Description:
Layout: H1 4-9, E1 17-18, E2 21-22, E3 24-25, H2 36-49, H3 59-78, E4 87-90, H4 93-108, E5 114-118, H5 127-136, E6 139-143, E7 145-146, E8 150-151, H6 156-159, E9 164-170, H7 182-192, E10 197-201, H8 213-216, E11 220-224, E12 235-239, H9 241-245, E13 257-260, E14 265-267, H10 281-297, H11 299-318, E15 323-325, E16 337-342, H12 347-355, E17 359-360, E18 362-364, H13 369-375, E19 380-384, H14 391-409
Parallel strand pairs: 3-17, 5-6, 5-9, 9-10, 10-11
Antiparallel strand pairs: 1-2, 4-12, 7-8, 11-12, 13-14, 15-16, 16-19, 18-19
The site of pyridoxal-5'-phosphate has 14 residues, from helix 4.
Cofactor: pyridoxal 5'-phosphate
Keywords: Pyridoxal phosphate, Transferase
Organism: Candidatus Gottesmanbacteria bacterium RIFCSPHIGHO2_02_FULL_39_14
Amino acid sequence: MFDVQKIRQDFPIINKKINGKPLVYLDSTASSLKPHQVISAENKYYEDYGVNIFRGVYSLSETATEKYEEARKIVAGFIGSSDEREVVFTRNATEAVNLAASSWGRSSLNQGENLVSTVMEHHANIVPWQEICREKKAELRFIDIVNLGQLDLDNLAQLIDQKTRLVALTYVSNVLGTINPVKNIINNIKSINSRTLILLDAAQAVPHLKVNVADLGADFIVFSGHKMLAPTGIGVLWGKYDVLQNMPPYQTGGEMIREVYLDHTIYNEIPYKFEAGTPNIAGTLGLAEAVRYLTGLGMNNVRNHEIEIVDYALNQLGKIKEITIYGPIKARDRGGVIAFNVKGIHPHDLAQILDTDNICIRSGHHCAMPLHQRLNIPASCRASFYIYNTRDEVDKLAEGIQKAQKILTTKD
Ligand SMILES: Cc1ncc(COP(=O)(O)O)c(C=O)c1O
């Protein structure tokens, strides 16, 4: 049973009051709140066996190592990978894209070839590709958007050719909320050029949808723990075994080696080859606990709650005069995010007025400047929803926006 009120009891921050008023947290797209189960899992590591992994033969270190590797299996299972060696722990989604761009790009991309991304990407899935293309003198092309913020897929055959080495695209837009039909897109790309690799930015998908890497057909998938109830500082690069196996290390040093001599080094196998130095052990265990929590709720229930709350929010916000809501009309076609603008009010001013009632939304470009340029707007407001949000909170948001309209657009 999916019981929002019960779920809310698990989140210590939700039950805190600021200046005597309850918190209305509508910024989970930036970072979700953490349930006490996750916080306890991190604490437990420090309290019960907080030592380094791999290095010790003593039992505390062996326990820490076992838990760390168990976490890898749990994460692999959650995204439908049957081989946990395909799960590389990183700091976040950004580092995961950088790892792929740097390691794969430096070793495989050549002058005159091209990569393709989309105009709706988060900067994390644009800038690393810009850098590697600049370095390799390769071209970076972009899939445009049409209508309400869907990718312009009619254009795919013009953009992808025999020199397209990789397509980097998002599963769910962190601004428009658009859920891209990634399985079809991947099939289409592979039918045009079967050797083109696909990197899927699933930072806004894994926390909200059942993601199955075996089913999707991508070569890389990246996501961050902190958007899915886990601590900050832990993320994932999932890659197909053969693809990862053929990539050189990203960073070098301890842990990622098998043998070191003064004149050369033999690297460890995957995934360790990509995990140089002491990892975020506590964060990894927190991520495993977050996965347990989400699995306990059931990802179908997580998604259904999101559709219900986004549908309600689209209706309530849609009633407000002079509001423009970006992205697909139907809740089913979008993730848990609604970006909007209110005529005559700067997004930062609106966010600040909402903050006086402890309503937390984002304002700005949400690390998607090219998308805002494409939409011809300097900035937008963004409210986002997760497992703990209620209709009552949506009502408070709608009332807060109307209050801001009264304050900021009254003419004297
Ligand atoms: C779609 C998308 N990709 C990538 C990122 C980057 O995530 P992180 O900052 O955790 O690396 C974000 C963060 O907002 C995002 O929404």
